Amino acid sequence: MAAPYLCNPIEKFNLFMSYDNNTFQNLISHCKEYGYIFQSSEIYDGLAAVYDYGQNGAQLKKNIRDAWWKTMTQMQDNIVGIDAAIFMHPTTWKASGHVDNFSDPMIDNKDSQKRYRVDHLIEAFVESLEKEAGAALIHQMEQLLAADDLAGIKQLIIDNNIKCSVSGTCNWTDVRQFNLMFSTELGSIADEASTIYLRPETAQGIFVNFLNVQKTGRMKIPFGIAQTGKAFRNEIVARQFIFRMREFEQMEMQYFIRPGSQMEWYEHWKAERMRWHQEVMGFPAARLQFHKHIKLAHYADAAVDVEFEFPFGWKELEGVHSRTDFDLKQHQEFSKKKQQYFDTEINQNYIPYVVETSVGLDRLVLATLSNAYAEEKWNREDGTPDSRVVLKIPANLAPTKLAVLPLTKKDGLPDIARDIIKNCRGAFPCFYEEKDSIGKRYRRMDAIGTPFCVTVDHQSKEDGTVTIRYRDTMTQKRIHMDDVKAKVLEAITV
Ligand code: ATP
Fold it and tell me: Is 319 in the pocket of ligand 1 (CB under 6 A)?
């Protein structure tokens, strides 16, 4: 039997092929072929639900992270960014409730030994049902999960005759809770006291630094602290490519507010985040929706997901949570250090309430790629068929903004092209290529998602003009080479 950490290619294949079309599978292959995303440790057959970003993926991810950071810190009067460590004192996770509560209900099939998260098992089954019956089953499941009725959930699975996809049987264990945190040992002695966790969320690094930032930054409520960084969860059922990973990156902002004002700020941040997904990420409004939580996490008094329509359905992209004063209160109790703020406007001391926005960077990458990916076919003017695969990534996020392509390798054209690159590369990433026909080079740039190509030809030597080609429309225009930089800069500034 394969070790559990290895990827099972057949299982992977089945999971991907169960979605509505092959496009998602094609996107995954495309991501590998064009240096976006690789399976981690691929030469050793991979590590399940762990991925590496290649040369284009890393740059896309950085561009999205930078766009978020700019919106959430630079463009705000009262939000600052920090970078807390992944390892934290183990009591942090006792206080936050993660040691006791950070678990998912799981069920095992006794015949195949395969373990499922019960909500995933039921959701997968719902895909085979009529819309109304499916919605009713999801509703029942949510009610049972909200009531922590694990026996009821098992009964629901049995009553609906939900089978294991591997064994095809209904021979289920009881439903049990599994903690999702990874643990390791600090130092050389492996006893309980030295057990520490890889953080399952970045938020706690912000809570424990609340007073440090408030005092050193002379912050006045309401104010926010933002952070991006790795988080780790031992997801039992890892699937859907980079949608559900064991090591992933979060971008979170905790907004500290006066108790009682949480609903106002909750609505504010809901609207702000929805606006950001459309205006900065370029997602169409039709592919975004809110999904209100019925079962609230142990710390929340209101919570909503921003969902994106992925190729495999509507799924969570971001959470907006009203976390009350739960976290700071817990840290005050466990650390015995006061986590209070003196509000000079109302002359009161209190533990602030918190509204947080928490988005997965990897899910944003996947949403961007699935929104951008297109397989296009058309007939040329002479009737011959043509096609291309293109990533229509918004120009502000595309890894490479401009490709400069001399038509031939001689007659001084490469020198002109290099001069254009020299003039532009300080402002944005550029790419130079002289190999292959111009048509092939355009196709490669389309596949990587480069929004602009500039071709230098013999006319360029005479009048200083070049051809600029627009990726999305494939239209071409002659402009002066001195205008290239300004044109691209205009398009990438949001
Ligand atoms: P899910 O219900 O999909 O497991 P969650 O509600 O547990 O997600 P949160 O704890 O609210 O997620 O985390 C905030 C964000 O972090 C999510 O909206 C998601 O974008 C991202 N995220 C959470 N878990 C993962 C994961 N395993 N892989 C990639 N991104 C993740």
Answer: yes
Q: Whose CA is nearest to atom 13 of ligand 1?
A: 358
Q: Is 251 in the pocket of ligand 1 (CB under 6 A)?
A: no
Substitution candidate for ligand 1 out of 321, 358, 366 with most atoms within 8 A of CB:
358
Task: Report the separation in Å between the CA atom of 360 and the middle of ligand 1, taken as the mean of its atom positions.
Answer: 6
Which atom of ligand 1 lies at the shortest distance from residue 318's CA?
18
Burial of 21 (0-12, 13-18, 19+ CB in 10 A): exposed
The pLDDT value recorded for residue 300 is 86
Written as six digits, the tokens of 350 are 């209190």
Per residue in 262-299, pLDDT (tens digit) is: 999 999 999 999 999 999 999 999 999 999 887 787 77
Residue to substitute in 248, 270, 281, 322 for testing ligand 1 pocket (most ligand atoms within 8 angstroms of CB): 248
Cβ 473 vs Cβ 491: under 8 Å: no
**pLDDT the model gives residue 19:** 41
Residue nearest to atom 6 of ligand 1 (CA): 319
Q: Is 250 in the pocket of ligand 1 (CB under 6 A)?
A: yes
- The per-residue pLDDT for range 45-70, each reduced to its tens digit, is 999 899 999 999 999 999 999 999 99
Ligand 1 centroid to residue 144 C-alpha, Å: 21
CA of 98 to the centre of ligand 1 (A): 15
- Angstrom distance (rounded) from CA 175 to CA 154: 6
Q: Closest Cα to atom 14, ligand 1: which residue?
A: 358
Of the candidates 303, 309, 300, 248, the one whose C-alpha atom is nearest the C-alpha of residue 277 is: 309
Q: Collapse the DSSP code of 266 into the 3-class scheme (helix H, G, I; strand E, B; otherwise coil) and give the result.
A: helix
Dump pLDDT digits (tens) for 312-335: 899 999 999 999 999 999 999 999
